[in-house]
Amino acid sequence: MQMHVKRISLLFFMVMIVAGATYLWQGDYLTFDSIQRNQTALLEFIDRHYAKAVLLYILIYVATGLFLPGALILTISGGMLFGTLPAVMYANTGATCGSILAFMLSRHALGHYIQRRFAIQLERFNQELSRHGPHYLLVLRILPIVPFFVVNYGAGLTRIPFVSFVWTTSIGMLPGSLIYSYFGSKLARLSEAEGLFSWEILLALVLLSLFALLPVAVHHLGIRKKPTS
Question: What distance in Å separates the CA atoms of residue 184 and residue 145, rounded to the nearest whole number?
Fold first, then answer.
């Protein structure tokens, strides 16, 4: 009985977040132009209702872990509205919580079934993930070549341990969130955000990703160089 209540409560919580986030997205609220137009009002609201503003920001960020695009806009906006370190902390909290919800939903809805149904076909894939899964997840978090929520649901279909998923999500998003929150805190207007996407930032994220993949490369090169008996 308690398990059913927990599942229903979780589902209700997720539906509320999705509904609210959909309203914001369809209403064209999560855009640079919209936030810039309402910048003064947002800063006044934060000044008067800081705790509520933080909670709303985190909940919207939770939705990016479930299905909503716009994490980059939220991070830059958070830096402008809250400051660098608070924005990183709030974004990380929201993204991690949203990722956990998506991961658990995917794993319990389909992940266990897929792993049982295709156990033989996924054997080599699972062996690779058991050795290097955290490294691959770190790369996908540091260099967002795959949408955030796609990684969350995809990871839930694998045998990646829950703890590994959580720490790679939390740590992996730090470099990008630090960079964009910092730049957001330095912007007088969000329209200036177009100048943030420089090749230096991209190069830094790529190098961090390569560093995360280094143990994987060393492992596979070592296997190839082993003498055959």
Answer: 22
